[in-house]
Amino acid sequence: MASYDYKAGKKRVKEILNNDLDVIGENRLPTDEKFTFDNSYKSWVSAIFVDIRDSSILFTDEDEKKVSKIIRSFTSEVVEILKGDDNLREIGIRGDCVYSVYTTPYLNDEHEIFEKCVMINTYMEMLNKLLKEKSFPEIFVGIGVSTAMEMVVKAGRKDAGINNKVWIGDAVSKASNLSSLGNKGIIGAMVFSSFSYDCFIDIEIKNSGEEAKKWFKREYKEEYGTYYHSSITFTEFIRWINEGMSN
Predict the structure, then answer these.
(1) Which of 217, 222, 148, 224 is nearest to 189 (CA)?
(2) Collapsing DSSP states into helix, strand and coil, what is residue 18?
(3) In whole angstroms, how far apart are CA 62 and each of 51, 57, 65, 92, 241?
């Protein structure tokens, strides 16, 4: 029989179930050290998921060194784009997907999330050009974004040093689901929940003019609700790529 003290386990579970959890509502989600096993925070958060399309085909390629180089090239720079932000609260890699979660109390924070997505979408153009130069297969991604008022709790074992934050709400799960739509059929690479789009579009219109509305197409699916998608890129970055990427 496996070495698990089920009687002690029962006591721990009862303590958790009977605990009067302190739910703290804050406009800005705090950093990790504020979380305990007796509290939780409820705050506005936004999540980005960047998911490789048809990764199962890539991973079955017999040239393992080539595949590892492709995956490392993808994850390295996507992480670099996502990590440089004081609002970042979690970042990680799940198989073929890079994800990040941010506290986003203000509309300007939402607009920065949008710009990160455009930067990733533009970076993929550069990566694929570099892959083609090596005669490596190109890769394509779906980028999903969602925003919600989310409850965040610290989960794991209090005395074992094994714990992580769990995001309870719509933002993280919906961003993951929306990423699965990107770059499929007529859907653009970037897919934003309706609420995320509403949070940043007015700022982008102010920056770029009414033309910005034409960059996005509106869709609806029962399981996802209304969402907006686009494949726009940064003009200067794309020009540099197309001109040969010389210094």
Answers:
(1) 217
(2) helix
(3) 22, 10, 9, 26, 30
Q: Would you say residue 14 lies in a domain?
A: no
With tokens 């029989």, the residue in question is 1
Helix (H, G, I), strand (E, B) or coil at 73: helix
Residue 39: helix, strand or coil by DSSP?
strand
Q: Is residue 67 part of a domain?
A: yes
Whether this prediction's pTM lies above 0.85 is answered by yes
CATH code: domain of residue 74: 3.30.70.1230
61 lies in a domain? yes
Q: Report whether 114 contacts 200 (CB < 8 A).
A: yes
Distance of alpha carbon 10 from alpha carbon 116, whole angstroms? 45
Domain that holds residue 74: 19-242
> Beta partners for 228?
192, 218
Query: For residue range 103-132, what is the model confidence (pLDDT) as tens digits?
Result: 999 999 999 999 999 999 999 999 988 988
Question: Can you tell me which residue has the tokens 């020009």?
Answer: 239
Confidence of residue 150 (pLDDT cuts 50, 70, 90): confident
